[in-house]
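Chain A, query sequence.
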Amino acid sequence: MIKAATIRSRERFTRRVGQDMGDALKKQLGQTPNACWLFCAPLEGIDKLLKGIRESIGTGNLVGCTSAGDISSDGVGINSAVLGGIATDQIEFEIVTTIGLGRNSEAAGRQLAGAFSRTPQYIQIFSDGITGNGSAILKGMAAVLGENIPVAGGTAGDNDRYQKTMQFAGDKIYTDAICGIAFYGNFRLGTGVRSGWVPIGLAKKVTRATGPIVYELNGEPALDVYERFLGKHAEKLPAIGVEYPLCLLERWGDVGQEDYFLMRATMSVNRENRSITFAGEVPEGAMVNMTCGDNASILNAAEKAVKMALGDLGGITPAIAFCYSCTARKTVLGRRCQEEIDRVRSHVGPEVPIIGFYTYGEYSRVTPWSPNYLHNETFTVSLIGI
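Chain A, predicted structure.
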C-alpha cells in the first residue's frame, strides 16, 4: 500500500499554520505519513512553520528547502508553502544531512553518501543553490555509491534574489548544506527530463573557466561573445541570459539522447573581467553552443519529460509525482508556467498528487541506464509507484 497527498498554504508562516498543514495532510492520508517534503518561499517564520508541522505529523522524516516558487497539485505558488507526504508499508525512508557545502562540494557529496546506513535504491537531495557545486556533489556521491543509484531533486532557491537559501531536515534549518532522503523497499521509479532549448550557431570552445565561471570562449572574453550574440538586447544581461543558455556538447554534455544536451543558465556577469557565472559547472576545454527556445518547445519538453517518466514506470500507476523545474523556465514562461503542471496532470491523471519547486539547478538521470547529472533550464519528473 502507498498513499500520498499534498497541502498548500498561502498564509503567513506560523507554528499554528504548520500544525494546520500537518493535520490536513494526515486527514487526507488517513494516517501519519512515513515521510514528508516541504518547499516554501524564503519568508519570515519558516522556523515556526517547521516546528508546527513536526509537532503535527510526529515524524522526523521531513526534508525540503526554500524555493524560487513551489509546485503542488494546485499548480504554481510564489509566496506560499507546499507540504507533501507518503504513507506506506512498502518503503522505508532515511534522512541525512551534510553541512559546509561551499568549502568542498565533492567532499560534501562523499560525506552525504557515506552517511546512509545502507545502500539506497533511490535518493532525493536538496542542496544550497548558491554556495554549492551540484556537479561536484554528484561526483562525490558516485565515488561512494557508484553511478547506478538514481538521484533526483534540486538546488534550493530564494525567490530569485540569489542571496541565501535554506535546507530542511526534520525541524532543523540549514544553509550551505545538502539534505538527502533515501528510499528503500518495494517500489517502482520512473524519471524524465527535458529542456526544450536547441543549439544554434557555431560551436565554441571554453578556453578559460573555473567551475561555473567562464572567462573566455574561443579565446575571447565570454561576456564579449554573449554581447555580440545578443546585439541590442545585451544590456539586459544577466536576466536575458536565461533565454539563451549554453549547452555542453560532445563528451561534456552529450548524454546519448539526440534531442537533449546538458544546459547551463546564466546566473551573473562581471563587467570588469568580462566573465559569466553559470548555474552549474562549465569545464575548461569543453565545446558549447548558444541555444534558443520558445514557449511551445519549452512546454512540449515538460510533456515529454512526464511521458518518459511514465514509460520508465512500466505501466504502473504512480502514487505521487515529484516535479523539479528550473527557475529560468518560470522566468521565460511567465504566466504560462502553470501550463507545465497542467501537462503533467493531463498524463498522470487527476488523482495523483504533485509536489516540487522551481530550482537553481535540477538533479536527474537522463535514462534508466545513465549516470546522474546536474541540469539547468530543464523540467524533471520523478514518479513513485508500487
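The chain is about 25% helix and 40% strand. The longest helix spans residues 295-313.
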